[in-house]
Amino acid sequence: MPKYEASAFAPINIALAKYWGKRDARLNLPTNGSISITLDKFGSTTRVIFDETLEADVLVLNGEEVRTPETLRKISIVLDELRSIASTRFARVPCARWRARVLSQNNFPTAAGLASSASGIAALALAASHALGLKLTPERLSELARRGSGSACRSLFDGFVEWKRGELANGSDSVAASLHPASHWDLRALIVVVDAEPKSRSSTGGMTSARNSSPFFQSWIESAQATLGPIRDAIAARNFHALSRAAEENCLRMHACAISASPSLLYWKPATVALIHEARKMRAEGVEVFFTIDAGPNVVIVATAAHAAAARARLEVFLKNSGAALLETSPGRGAYVL
């Protein structure tokens, strides 16, 4: 009997223009577009095995079986969509009706605000589609990955990536695509892992709370959409000063929206705030850096290649005896089959 299985690797990504808010929770359609950098080295390696003996999809993450209903729901949403496509186009392939065993391993902290769900779901979508023998376009695969985790649609692509908000009710135009390859701009991402533990509240829960209770939510949507153009243009022109200003404003406005929700959603730790000040201090002293923070306490310091060594040295001194880890990476390629 042929084996219906495949493995894939998908990287994490860090948003420069943040995704924060769903206009359709069922389809994971965003309230605003977003722009990210796909990062090299760090991500999820995922193997998908379709097995006719299983009664339900199984997820083993970092060596432990996951039984959390919400997490299992996310992977089954993607798998169900792919099984449906396989049943329609390849009705004679028996595995189109089988459940799957998903074995996934992250080489970075999980659920700590470093896009582990994005890389995991992107790797799942790519591996499962190959296991089923599907030849999907990048756009279609992006749409399917988005169903499981919004930002997963960005981890499929190289370098600098934009996820379009889209306008259609079925979500078919809410997909990601690469704006520029990783080689477009030699930047460095210095990831400061302030807290490697899972964050207190998921991004999905935080978005829902902000949408329902923050008095600034509508302003956030308008501001987020307005920031896309300047960030896109700054990346195209490799204008670090303009990108620094726009990306930091976008980051702080997203967190202001979260903080203003009821109950308030404050992901930051004292070290998070201290790192914001340290990044500003470095920049004032001529070191080309800026900060960005996704939904969690951990901080990414983005530096030009020429200033990365100086920024790293400053951070190593700053973090001495703090217990925080410092990871360095750069723009990289998107997801690929192993």
Describe this structure as you would to a colleague:
There is one protein chain. With 338 residues, this protein is an alpha+beta fold. It is 38% helix and 25% strand. The model has no long low-confidence stretch (mean pLDDT 92). Strand 5 and strand 6 (64-66) form a beta hairpin. The chain is globular, with a radius of gyration of 20 Å. The chain has helices at residues 69-89, 116-131, 138-148, 152-155, 203-213, 217-237, 240-259, 270-284, 308-318; strands at 5-17, 22-24, 29-30, 34-51, 58-61, 64-66, 99-106, 160-163, 176-180, 187-193, 289-292, 299-304, 325-329, 336-337. Helix 1 runs antiparallel to helix 3 (138-148), helix 2 (116-131) crosses helix 3 (138-148) and helix 6 (217-237) runs antiparallel to helix 7. It has two domains: 5-184, Ribosomal Protein S5, domain 2, CATH 3.30.230.10; 187-329, GHMP kinase, C-terminal domain (Alpha-Beta Plaits), CATH 3.30.70.
- Percentage of β-strand residues: 15-25%
As for the CATH topology of the largest domain, it is Ribosomal Protein S5, domain 2
Q: Main sheet?
A: 8 strands, mixed
Give the total of domains.
Answer: 2
SSE pattern: EEEEEEHEHHHEEEHHHHEEHEE
Number of helices: 9
CATH class of the largest domain: Alpha Beta
Through-space gap between termini:
22 Å
Structural class: alpha+beta
